[in-house]
Amino acid sequence: MRSRWFGLVVAALAAAVSVWAYPQLPPTVATHWNLRGAPDGFSSRTLAVAIMPAVILLMTGVFRVLPRLDPRGENYTKFIGTYWLIANSVIVFVLIAHGMILATGLGYAVKIDRLMPIGIGVLFIILGNFFTRVEPNWFVGIRTPWTLSSDTVWRKTHRTGGWVFVIGGLVLASTALLPRAAFLPLLIATIVIMPAIPIVQSYVLWKREQGKS
User: Worst-scoring range by mean pLDDT, 5-9, 51-55, 200-204?
Assistant: First the structure.
């Protein structure tokens, strides 16, 4: 999971699954669902099998280029293993989404509205667990004007953000088990509150730091 080549392996796996599934898919495949789990977007089977492997390949290329573009690129050497673990976790999430799209196209009863919150929750838990290892940079982590202006604010915000993301991930994953009436309000509240806490904290810490100077 910490390898920079991992994404290419995942892209090849996604492409292989697509080639296998293609002859068995109907001409039109559901590729998007609403929050109630009802399909509301459709694509041709050619696009359905091609889009996610292409996205994975593109993401792998972007993740390889970002450290070279970052004005603080020298910091990546301090957390390069964590950087690729985070990047590859996102790539695996896309692979799982690809698998669910193909599975529904093949006729399997996949509860997208229940499985997707679990997947997103697990992804947030992974991100939260590794936030404290991310050094200041312009592309990965909690990037606000205040964390980017102060390495001290960056590190304190990411310590808090790590816990917030882990707790938020657990809440998101648990929404899959709740009655539908409670699912949507809790999902929205978590998505709103989870980023708000570290954003506000970063401003407060920066303002306090400015007051001391």
Answer: 5-9
In percent, how much of the chain has pLDDT > 90? 73
User: pTM of the full predicted structure?
Assistant: 0.89
Whether the CB-CB separation of 105 and 25 falls below 8 Å is answered with yes
CA 149 to chain centre: 25
Task: Report the alpha-carbon distance of residue 14 to residue 84 in Å, rounded.
Answer: 19
* Rounded Cα gap, residues 34 and 38, in angstroms: 6
Q: Residue 27 corresponds to which tokens in the numbers above? A: 């001409």
Q: If 0-12 CB within 10 Å is exposed, 13-18 middle and 19+ buried, where does residue 209 land?
A: middle
Residue carrying structure tokens 């998505």: 191
Distance CA 96, CA 14 (A): 9
Q: Bigger pLDDT: 25 or 3?
A: 25
